[in-house]
Amino acid sequence: MEYAIPDLTQWVTRFLLPLFRISSFFMVVPLIGTQLVPVRIRLGFSIAITIVVLPLLPPQPSIDGLSLSLYVLIAQQLLIGFALGFFVQVFFQVFVLGGQLISSQMGLGFASISDPANGVSVVVLSQFYLMTVMMLFLSMNGHAVLIDVIVDSFRIMPIGEGSLTSDSQWTIAASGTWMFAGGLVIALPAVVSILIVNFAFGVMTKAAPQLNIFAIGFPFTMVFGIAIAWVSLEGFLGQYQRIADEILNMLARLLVAG
Question: Which of 23, 53, 73, 125 could form a disulfide with 99 if both were Cys (CB 3.0 to 4.6 A apart)?
Fold first, then answer.
C-alpha cells in the first residue's frame, strides 16, 4: 500500500490537534495533572482518550503541514485545554481557600504541611478539605465528567471554527472573584463563630484585667475552631454540590461564549 505525503500529513494533523487540546486539559486538572502522576502516564492517558474519541469528533478542515495556520490552531487548542482545566483547578482551590480562612481565624495558620500533589505548603485544614473533595469527586464519577467536558468542547467549539473570545476571557478572569467568594461562603459559619468567641474574650479582658486571657484564649479558640470545623462537615456535601453545579455552569458559559 502506498500513501502520499499530503495524505499522511492530514492524518497526523487530524490526530495531533485533538491530542493537543486533550493533553493540555489533563496536564492541568487535579487528580490527573498533579506531580504524583508522571508525565508519561498523563500523556499516555491523553493519547488513549484521543484514540477513543477521534471517530466521534466533527470533521476537521484541511490544513497544510508546517503552515502558519497549523501553529495558530495548535495554540488555540492548547489555550482551550488550559482554560477548561483551569476552571476545574479553581473548583478545588475554593475549598483550600476556605480551609485557609478558617485556620487563620482559629490560630492554626502556622500549622502547614507539604501538599504532595501540588508541591506547595498548605495548612492542615485545607489539606483535609482537599482530600475530602477529591474523594467526593471520585465517588460521584467526577473523572467521567472531566472526560465528558473535554469531549463536548469539540462539539461546541470545533477545531478551526471556535476559539476563546473576549467574553470567554472575561469569564476566566471573573473566576478568581468567584473563587474568593466561594471560599468565604465555606468559611463564613466557622469564622463568625470563632469571632464571637474572641469578642467574648475581649469582654472578659475588659471586665477582669487581672485574668490572663492570652494563656487560655489561644488553646480554647483552637479547640473550639476544631469543634466548629467538625460540626460544619454535616453541610459539607451540600456546599460541594452547589459549588460543583456552579463550576459546571461556568464551564458551559465558557464554551458557549467561545
Answer: 125
